Amino acid sequence: MGLTIAQKIIQSHILSGDMFTPGSEIALKIDQTLTQDATGTMAYLEFEAMGIERVKTEKSVAYIDHNTLQSGFENADDHRYIQSVAKKHGIFFSRPGNGICHQVHLERYGIPGKTLIGSDSHTPTCGGIGMLAMGAGGLDVAVAMGGGPYYINMPKMYKVILKGKLRDGVAAKDISLEILRILSVKGGVGAIIEWGGEGIKTLSVPERATITNMGAELGATTSIFPSDETTREYLEAQGRAEVFVPLESDPDAVYDKIVEIDLSSLEPLAACPHSPDNVTEVKNLSSIKVDQVCIGSCTNSSLRDMLRVAAILKGKTIAPSVSLSISPGSKQVLMMLADCGALSDIIASGARILESACGPCIGMGFSPNSGGVSLRTFNRNFEGRSGTADGQIYLVSPETAAASALSGYITDPRTIGEIPPIEMPERFRIDDRGTLAPADLAEAPAVEILKGPNIKEIPVGEALGDTLMAPLTLKVGDNITTDHIMPAGSKILPYRSNVPYLSQYCFGVCDKTFPERAKATGKSIVVGGINYGQGSSREHAALVPLYLGVKAVVAKSFARIHAANLINAGILPLTFENSDDYDRLDQGDSLSIRGIHAGFENGKWILSDETKGIEIPLVFTFTQRQKEILLAGGLLNYTKSEE
Ligand code: MIC
Ligand code: SF4
Prior knowledge:
By secondary structure, the protein is an alpha/beta fold. Helix content is about 30%, strand content about 20%.
């Protein structure tokens, strides 16, 4: 039987497990890691707790791109901490201003055929050059930096076959939105999505990276393109031709699902509030007035995207009602825009230039006006994520965003006339001074770790008892995101290394009274619906509930990274055997689960609702390793006990 691209990379990196049994646990050797600053402080505190002197990966990079607003000492302190840890332990440090982790990693460090995990859910961006790149919790990244394997359940293989060619005004972002419309935000769970077909030849690397980036919104383990002539040309233009290797699937590779998209029939699309899969044609939205437009984020901030935007804005002025922000994805993109004059065209149109960082995408400034309509080229439009609780966020392509900024209404870019052609350079401007190399082995011991007062202890779980009795302190619905569980934004993000402070905001989007209630009861069980924990990889969505005494989460189903984070934190994730039983439970019920240890034998438990006198069967398939982690009270305890 032939192999898919992902199976080939897995085959060359598998350390244990059976890659031909989807769903079973496999261990992978990890070649590269990345962290960003919002998850990085925690990941490096965990790395330090493991007591390893030097990273064992081929390349590990610590990026500063999320918490770049410094309205107090907190973020600056955390950055200094990450810089010092990186220097001491053999990690490259990408300074603030150097760019968004995924954009910079694609440009400068990603390698086809290698494995990468990152403490950020959009790590699959590097799948655009044929890398097996996955988002993970900070603790999993810390373990990988220490040379340990990364465990996943062997994914199913899906293939999307592209035919034809995009028409002018239709963009890679529209392909991402189309596949979200077809598969939904849970359609990729448990799968790796390979992109192929004749149509991919028409897509450049940055366009491919837009698509692999937004595979995160499908819940997919990762997404991947072949490494072909287009990849080689891109790497050569980045001065990295030597890392190119060709990679494609075998003609007789077998897929669990195949989807076909005809590029030539695609239209500009938009994801409407408040979910990336709430997709419709842009032309259906033309009566909606726009207050704000934000162009950038790891999805759409490449030089190509920015040049397209500059070409649309050139010589024109944005509508008086619109506030337009532009965040070029990296120092390289920003410098090249400046060099060719496109930056002037953008500024002249009335746009506000933000630094090369995540910015508005994570609510770091640029929150829309109350009830405001904001068009964003980003990847997530979850409720409240923009920082304005009633903001109406639409996700669109850079072309749609720029056209709408000019007209003041949601505008199909094909209606504003032909977009002037752009010219991509043969060689990118290469200047790696934004990344600092770590100290060498001789210097490293003398490097001092700098910790500010914002850095508090990491909560550590306790060994799992055999009986759990706790009230149901919170019942939530389907598709709860980690942004619901642990919101971000400029007011809260500076406290990512301060779990006690963060805990006041836990589940704030769903129920502001939860933290107090959970603290008062000491122990609690949370109940959720389908795809619980989708979205961001932030392990804070497990660590903060742990701090507040959450012992178990019972849901209809879980998103991959969040389930792993719960287990790593020592919180028991269990699913309903019959989804309808969800309706029988109410907030405030007294619950108990007995015989937890014996339940691990057959993967079955009984949840007793003492208030109602009913019994509900629960199930979950834990691997031997996951059982041991839970029994030890989380991955940190487990790793220590292994030493
Ligand atoms: C996001 O897009 O939600 C983030 C912020 O990049 C997160 C990571 C985090 O919460 O720090 C992600 O995607 O994993
Ligand atoms: Fe940053 Fe937004 Fe990308 Fe997350 S999705 S890494 S916040 S740009």
